[in-house]
Design brief:
seven-stranded antiparallel sheet; six-stranded antiparallel sheet; 17 strands
């Protein structure tokens, strides 16, 4: 989503991917590169440029590219999978590669658009993009924003269409939305199963009234039910809402990272959960040029030293009975977050405090027994993913102590 307001641009995105696909915060500094250098992206190699910008990325652990990111010049980009009738190439740049390349090579939103479209025309987009199903592939749409406004960029193979956003709001999901471009290019079956129209109706309505990043964060947490309880479809799980929860038999994705930004002429401010499920997560301030020591890189196997996986002990417990368990900590989380949105503390301070809160909240939701209120197929879906990730059946007394040793005492 993007909302262009007087003196600022608000940007937000949920990254919806496979449930065990940990997503990393990845700081990359400004670099000078040798003449003739080559760059290895996720699947192909391309020419490197002489200088690349400092960037902060939200990146699935196994990819070179990123789902969300921002650079030192105040450009922020998010991408979405779209399903088109155009031929999907066997290899090429992924949409996530294109996003990272644009952030590394552009200093404005329109320059970022030009980077994406020129590389798209030159190299095409292709290659596997899934974690559980590596051959899963798609084309991409993007929201590209800076302090001046934003652009919606939609693609089908090497073709593309652009729509500027100079005022008001705009959102994208897993479907083409630029009408003239969508006509004759939309693959209707996969688009329908993505439930993009339902989600986009929620995000468009939510963004329309948004005046702050807090407002957009609330939209990212929306389950589309008017409550804390997601609705599950047998075929598509919880994919009908921005705060997505996996389990469908035909399509299953989970929100694995969330990000909100405020972009102004005076500078950019970003907040991230660095965890799955914004309904149980806490938005924390980050800066592009100030990397944090977050411990070892998370993968698809549980590691108590990693923030992303420690949060899963809270998140997956709450999924069993969100109406009863979320209220145990949600009010405190919201109060902390309001303060951080209004006056962001130093990121190291915020992440350390968030880590302490996560330990306490996890302990609170695991007190006593909780009956799983979800449909049987949902319970089974998550049981299988927990086994694949070697997720403990409940937190141990050593979890917090193990986490405290990671990253020299900083949160992991």
């Amino acid at each position: 989503m993007v909302a262009v307001r007087d003196g600022k641009v608000l940007f937000a995105k949920n990254s919806d991917r496979d449930p065990n696909e940990a997503q990393l915060l990845d700081w990359q500094p400004r670099r000078s590169n040798a003449p003739g250098a080559r760059l290895k992206c996720t699947w192909i190699e391309i020419d490197q440029v002489p200088v690349t910008n400092a960037v902060l990325l939200s990146r699935p652990f196994w990819m070179w590219g990123a789902e969300i990111g921002a650079n030192e010049h105040g450009v922020a980009i998010g991408n979405e999978a779209v399903f088109t009738l155009a031929q999907r190439e066997a290899t090429g740049l992924t949409g996530m590669d294109l996003l990272r390349l644009a952030l590394e090579r552009a200093s404005t939103a329109i320059e970022a658009v030009e980077v994406i479209t020129s590389l798209l025309e030159q190299h095409g987009q292709g290659g596997g993009c899934g974690h559980e199903h590596r051959n899963f592939s798609y084309h991409n749409s993007f929201i590209v924003a800076d302090a001046e406004g934003a652009y919606v960029l939609e693609t089908a193979a090497r073709e593309w269409a652009l729509e500027p956003v100079t005022t008001g709001t705009r959102s994208i999901s897993n479907g083409l939305t630029i009408a003239a471009f969508a006509e004759g290019r939309t693959e209707r079956t996969r688009t329908r199963f993505s439930r993009s129209r339902e989600r986009r109706a929620i995000t468009e309505a939510g963004a329309a009234g948004a005046q702050s990043v807090a407002d957009l964060a609330a939209v990212l947490r929306d389950h589309g039910t008017g409550s804390a309880v997601p609705h599950y479809s047998l075929l598509t799980g919880g994919m009908g809402a921005p705060c997505m929860h996996a389990s469908g038999l035909a399509a299953a994705s989970q929100t694995t990272a969330s990000w909100v930004s405020e972009l102004t002429a005076a500078g950019a401010q970003h907040w991230v959960t660095a965890t799955a499920a914004p309904c149980t997560g806490l938005f924390k301030p980050v800066r592009v040029g100030e990397p944090l020591d977050l411990g070892p890189q998370a993968t698809d196997v549980f590691d108590p030293r990693c923030l992303w996986w420690r949060h899963e002990l809270l998140h997956r417990r709450c999924l069993a009975d969100p109406a009863r368990l979320l209220p145990r900590f949600a009010a405190e989380r919201d109060e902390v977050e309001r303060g951080w949105f209004a006056a962001p503390p130093e990121p190291t301070v915020a992440f350390a405090e968030a880590d302490r809160l996560l330990d306490r909240w996890t302990d609170e939701v695991w007190r006593g027994d909780a009956r799983d209120k979800r449909p049987r197929w949902v319970h089974r879906y998550w049981q299988v993913r927990a086994a694949r990730a070697a997720l403990p059946t409940r937190p141990t007394a050593t979890t917090a102590a193990t986490a405290a040793t990671a990253g020299g005492g900083e949160p992991a």
